[in-house]
Design a protein that fits this description.
5-stranded mixed sheet, 4 helices, alpha+beta, single chain, 23% helix, 7 strands, two-stranded antiparallel sheet, binds zinc ion
């Protein structure tokens, strides 16, 4: 877990107020987590860590790319990801079930934020992994497959489908 030592924040000695951290994540980071769905990657994380009298407020900004299989053409693409997340951490021996708040033992002196960041990066990966290949050179998508898909879609549009005709009548179009 040596790679993750950088993610440890010494909260007890920390002054009140906002502290800023920048992390760069690649495959070595994700390799620390078992069954991580993310491998090769290039992700920048900015963390605003706000120490308040009664809680810590973490604002996390995720931006970068992860290697993924395109849902459309099945090529390996650098899928852009981004997201903003907030997490509240409280130190308390009386845990209660409140959403979006993590309770850690009162005697906590350091908080390792790696696992929270890992979860937020996971949330940033879109369900549909397709790429807007127009804006990247060379385009990462398999152009031959995309061309074939476009042709098939065009053919489906022009093929008369009696079910769709009926549905269109019902919806008044
Ligand atoms: Zn593709």
């Amino acid at each position: 877990m040596a790679t993750l030592n950088n993610f440890s924040i010494p909260v007890r000695g920390l002054k009140s107020g906002v502290h800023q951290y920048n992390f760069h994540l690649d495959s070595t980071f994700f390799a620390e987590f078992s069954k991580a769905p993310i491998g090769e990657s290039d992700v920048n994380v900015h963390l605003d860590f706000d120490k308040r009298p009664d809680m810590f407020v973490l604002d996390v900004d995720v931006q970068g790319t992860v290697k993924a299989e395109c849902d459309r053409c099945l090529a390996d693409i650098n899928l852009p990801i981004e997201g903003q997340y907030q997490l509240i951490i409280k130190l308390s021996d009386h845990e209660s079930e409140v959403d979006e708040v993590v309770y850690l033992p009162a005697e906590t002196t350091e908080i390792n934020v790696a696992k929270y960041i890992y979860e937020f990066v996971g949330l940033s990966v879109p369900m549909m992994k397709t790429y807007d290949c127009q804006n990247d050179t060379p385009p990462p998508c398999d152009q031959a497959v995309l061309a074939r898909l476009a042709k098939e879609e065009e053919e489906q549009k022009t093929t008369n489908n009696p079910i769709w005709d009926e549905l269109n009548k019902l919806s008044g179009n």
